[in-house]
Design brief:
The protein is of the alpha/beta class. The chain has one domain: NAD(P)-binding Rossmann-like Domain (Rossmann fold). It contains 10 helices and 9 strands. The strands form 2 sheets. Strands 3-2-1-4-5-6-9 form a 7-stranded parallel sheet, sandwiched between helices. A two-stranded parallel sheet has the order 7-8. Strand 2, helix 2 and strand 3 form a beta-alpha-beta unit. The protein is globular.
């Protein structure tokens, strides 16, 4: 029970990595608030978690007002926030140029639209900053907390469409900045950079892109959502009490640094 009594918020927690992490956190004793664009899915997932005090919220992470409301509701119910996991994200958007690039064997940057650039950055970077801004006051008050940002090997090695790689790279920068700013208050900030993970999101990625990546992975397989969830448990718990400003990349060896 490494997270016994902890209050955690997980964005994008209704499916995939977020749901697996919510289940892992709950098994370790945390009360989990799931915030997801799919509000019904968030409520259903929260109800199914073991333990007590779990909450589900409909939340568009690009809506700063709604983000503030969600965090306020969690603090009102539980009195604080101990763990924030910024997991909400997408790896494909209409207009991102990715499919055209595969079909025409051209760089995606030639086909990406203004809307796709703006939305990709808004979801991953602005959303994480909105949630951090809303949750950090509670952490400062209690002189402790853990922020976990879900980045990607795209941000480490430039893999994937340019807007996605840029957004995930920016998230790594945010992770480091928050670690420096918030360390004096006992708040840790770290990132997880998954490799190719079997989730509903990656199912939508063309096989022409994913298959070569799996073949290039030394372990010769996709990762599982639980691989990321267990990493998140470590970063949320006191097992990582002296770890901040770092990124951990469960990627099967496709990126080795």
């Amino acid at each position: 029970m490494r997270l016994e009594g902890k209050i955690a918020i997980i964005t994008g927690g209704a499916s995939g990595i977020g749901l697996a992490t919510a289940e892992a956190f709950a098994r370790e004793g945390a009360s989990v608030a799931i915030a997801d664009l799919n509000g019904a899915g968030a409520e259903q997932a929260a109800t199914a978690l073991p333990g007590e005090g779990h909450l589900g919220f409909a939340c568009d992470v690009t809506d700063s007002t709604r983000v503030t409301q969600v965090v306020h509701n969690v603090v009102e119910r539980h009195g604080r926030v101990d763990v924030l996991m910024n997991n909400a994200g997408v790896d494909k958007l209409p207009g991102d140029g990715f499919e055209q690039a595969i079909e025409r064997r051209e760089p995606p940057i030639l086909h990406i639209t203004d809307e796709a650039i703006s939305k990709m950055l808004s979801i991953h970077v602005s959303g994480a900053m909105y949630f951090a801004r809303a949750a950090v006051p509670s952490m400062i008050e209690q002189r402790g907390g853990a922020i976990i940002n879900v980045a990607s090997i795209a941000g480490l090695a430039g893999m994937g469409a340019p807007a996605y790689a840029a957004a995930k790279g920016a998230l790594l920068g945010l992770t480091k900045s928050l670690a420096r700013e918030l360390g004096p208050y006992g708040i840790r900030s770290n990132a997880i950079s998954p490799g190719v993970i079997a989730t509903p999101m990656t199912e939508a990625v063309p096989d022409a892109f994913l298959e070569p990546m799996v073949k290039a992975t030394p372990l010769r397989r996709k990762g599982e959502a639980r691989d990321i969830a267990e990493t998140a448990v470590y970063l949320a718990s006191e097992d990582s009490a002296f770890v901040t400003g770092q990124q951990i990349s469960p990627n099967g060896g496709i990126v080795i640094a």
